[in-house]
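Entry type: protein chain
Record version: 2
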Amino acid sequence: MIISGEFLRLPAETKEVSPETRETMEKLIERLEEAIIRTIARWNIKGERIEGASGVWIDQNRKICAVGVRSSRYVTMHGFALNANTDLKWFGLINPCGFTDRGVTSIARETGREVDMEELKSIFKKMFMKNFDIKIKQEDYANREKLGNQATGRREQSG
């Protein structure tokens, strides 16, 4: 399951967060990681953070979720890759996240059963909204490009 910045879109009028509510990028990542930790807890998996290594880990040696966040011109671009039913054999060909002394796992490997993706997305959405204290509304997919242009300040091209 890979979730990119399309999961959460800031309103077009958002230019800068007020100083009172501004959080560091580290806090944003922590909140995202916590939403993932709470999500996988539904499968009785104990996720944790490791200082100096972003993402969510199991027993400090198996990464179950990679997290990345970037900010530019007051717009955040964020994403994570939560291994749900992932074929983990491909990770044997690389050093995931640059680590040579740690492995990668998935919800399916930890539980011994395949994960229902709709259930996973629903649980994550609830945990995300709770952790960030926000409501996410379902946008019409047809408006996706228009919304993206509003968020980035690009003008729509007329045909």
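Comment: Strands lie at 2-3, 47-50, 53-58, 62-72, 75-82, 103-104.
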